[in-house]
Amino acid sequence: MTKFSTDAAGFAALTISELILQQCVLNGLFTGEEARRLLISAAKRHEAAASGTDEKIALNMEAAHLIRALSSGLEPLFREQRNATPPKTPQQKTGSRPNWVRFPD
């Protein structure tokens, strides 16, 4: 397997995560508010983990800052969903099983 730098891997993971988050909101798997809470929770986890060595503190605080910046960048998506008609649940769309995903507050 080709070796990739941690910077490239992290950047790719961020892009994939952002697109998955957008599609989950757009497809009604969860609301914009739930997505916002997910990002806030992730940022808080990094802030809480910011202890130990200076390098670990800096890395976690930078990750928290990045997550908060991502949340700000996605704000138009969150607002659009707030004003839109409620999306159909996945079960209503396809007849499949109900959405079982729950995110922390």
Q: Nutshell version of this structure?
A:
With 105 residues, the protein is mainly α. It contains five helices and no strands. The protein has helices at 6-26, 32-48, 54-73, 75-83, 90-94.
Q: Uncertain regions: pLDDT < 50 for 5+ in a row? A: 90-94
The run of helices and strands is HHHHH
Helix content: 55-70%
Total strands: the figure is 0
Strand content: under 5%
| Major sheet summary line | none
Mean pLDDT: 81
Q: C-alpha Rg, in Å?
A: 16 Å
Structural class: mainly alpha
Alpha-carbon distance between the two ends: 38 Å
Q: What is the approximate shape?
A: flat
Topology record:
Layout: H1 6-26, H2 32-48, H3 54-73, H4 75-83, H5 90-94
Helix pairs in contact: 2-3, 2-4
List keywords for this structure.
single chain; 105 residues; mainly alpha; 5 helices; 0% strand; flat
Structure in words:
The protein is mainly alpha-helical and 105 residues long. The protein is flat. 69% of the residues lie in helices and 0% in strands. Mean pLDDT is 81; it is low at 90-94. α2 (32-48) runs antiparallel to α3 and α2 runs antiparallel to α4.
